[in-house]
Amino acid sequence: MCYGGKNRGGWCAAVTEEPTKERTAQWRALWEGDRDRLRPDRVSGRALLGYLQGRYELTEMFDGWAADCVAGSVLENACYCEKLPAGARPAARTFYLENSGAGKTLCGEGGDSVPGFFTVEGSTLLWDELCAARGLDEEDLQNFASVAQLVAVRERPGRPVG
Length: 162
Description:
The protein has helices at 21-34, 45-55, 64-75, 78-81, 124-134, 144-154, and strands at 58-61, 92-97, 111-112. The chain is mainly α.
């Protein structure tokens, strides 16, 4: 997660370094306080892409290397991989966000078609926005770090409402 933001506990959601014991304790406390009010609301990759296309100008990349990076990110993370249907491989689609319109706010600071997985390079703000838009499923709600992350990005001042 990137640290030093103004969200609960002084952190925002994009994970960029190993969490400390103190940070983990903060996440657990946040999870314990908020888990009962949250309901599963995770959207599909297709819905997440629709959300992005409705807000930003995207250009699809037809780059096998980029698609392999996205698929590899899913396959190398057990918490993502176990959400795939048995034997399925992510059908990654990659995009870049144009530095125009609403995208100007995020530039300078990717998604696939399986259950709402995404990878963002170059913008923790976009990662946070997608995390908030995607939501969590029932299993995610049992993970204190996932809940803390979602609460932080949904409560971030100035977060786009999607």
